[in-house]
Design brief:
By secondary structure, the protein is mostly helical. It contains 15 helices and no strands.
C-alpha cells in the first residue's frame, strides 16, 4: 500500500507508443518482454474493446484489432470473453478457429489460454489438462492454473499429480481455503491421513467459525477408517451448523459402521438407526 518505484520515459511522437512503453517496462522489470504487437492501430482497437460498454461493440473492436495484426494474442482472449457473455457459442467457435489458424505465430501463453477455452467449450478433460500444463509452462506463476491442474487430476483419480499441483498453487497463494480443502482430500486418497489433516487444520485456522473444515476432517477420517474421530468431527461440524446435510448423512454412515463393528460411540443404537 505504498509507492515503491517510479518509472519515466519520453520520446518523439513520431516514434510512437512502443519505444517509450518498452523503456518504462524495462525500468520496472529486467525480465519485461517485448509487447506482442507493433501495430498502434491494433492496440487502439483493443483498447476500444476493453472500454466498450456492451459486448457487441467490444466484439467488433476486437475483430478490428486482429484484422490490423492477426498475430496479436490478447484481443482473441477478450473477444472469446465478449462472445461468452453474449452466450454466442458460434461466435466463440469462430474466434477460436481464427486464432488456431495463426498456429505458432501467436505467443505460447495466448495459445494455451485459447486451447483451454476450446477444451472447456467442448468438455474435453484430456485437452484441458494439456492446455493447463502448457499454460503453467508458458505463463507467469498462477495459482488458478495450478488449482485447475489439481482439479483435473483429482477428477481423473491421479491423486499424486493432484497433490503436487495443489502444493504449487499454495506456494503462490498459501491461504487459499479451497485449495487447502481439496489438498486434504487428495492426501487422504493417497493414504496419508496426517498430511490430509494438516491441510484441513490450516483451513480450520483460517475459517474458525465455519463448519466445513470440520466436516472435511470428518470425511478424511471416515475414508481412512477412523470412525470414532470421524464421529467427533461431524458432531463438531453440526454444532456450528446443524443444517449441514453432508455432515448429517456421513455421520449416519459412521454410526452405522461403528454399530456393525461393535465400536463404542456417543449415540445409542436406537439413535444411530434413526440417524
Amino acid at each position: 500500500m505504498k509507492t515503491v518505484q517510479r518509472a519515466r520515459a519520453e520520446g518523439p511522437a513520431a516514434s510512437g507508443l512502443f519505444s517509450v512503453a518498452a523503456h518504462v517496462a524495462t525500468q520496472l522489470s529486467a525480465a519485461a518482454r517485448q509487447y506482442s504487437t507493433r501495430s498502434q492501430d491494433a492496440v487502439r482497437a483493443y483498447a476500444e474493446g476493453l472500454d466498450a460498454t456492451d459486448a457487441a461493440a467490444a466484439s467488433a473492436a476486437y475483430s478490428r484489432a486482429v484484422a490490423f495484426d492477426p498475430n496479436f494474442g490478447p484481443p482473441y482472449l477478450t473477444w472469446v470473453g465478449a462472445e461468452a457473455s453474449r452466450q454466442n457459442r458460434a461466435g466463440i467457435e469462430h474466434v477460436l478457429q481464427l486464432a488456431k489458424s495463426r498456429g505458432d505465430a501467436l505467443p505460447a501463453y495466448e495459445r494455451a489460454r485459447l486451447a483451454l477455452n476450446a477444451a472447456e467449450l467442448n468438455g474435453d478433460n484430456v485437452a484441458k489438462m494439456q492446455a493447463l500444463a502448457a499454460l503453467a509452462k508458458a505463463g507467469p506463476p498462477d495459482a488458478g492454473v495450478y488449482k485447475g491442474l489439481g482439479d483435473a487430476a483429482l477428477q481423473g483419480r491421479r491423486y499424486r499429480d493432484a497433490v503436487n499441483a495443489y502444493h504449487q498453487a499454495l506456494a503462490i497463494a498459501p491461504d487459499d481455503i479451497a485449495v487447502l480443502n481439496l489438498l486434504g482430500y487428495a492426501e487422504a486418497y493417497l493414504g496419508d491421513l496426517p498430511r490430509a489433516l494438516q491441510a484441513l487444520k490450516k483451513y480450520e485456522q483460517l475459517q474458525p467459525a465455519q463448519a466445513n473444515p470440520l466436516d472435511s476432517q470428518g470425511d478424511v477420517n471416515l475414508y481412512s477408517g477412523h470412525y470414532a474421530e470421524a464421529e467427533k468431527m461431524y458432531l463438531e461440524a453440526l454444532a456450528k451448523n446443524e443444517n449441514l446435510l453432508a455432515a448429517r448423512h456421513n455421520l449416519a454412515i459412521v454410526l452405522h459402521r461403528m454399530w456393525v463393528n461393535g465400536t463404542d460411540f456417543r449415540f445409542g443404537k436406537e439413535e444411530a438407526a434413526t440417524a
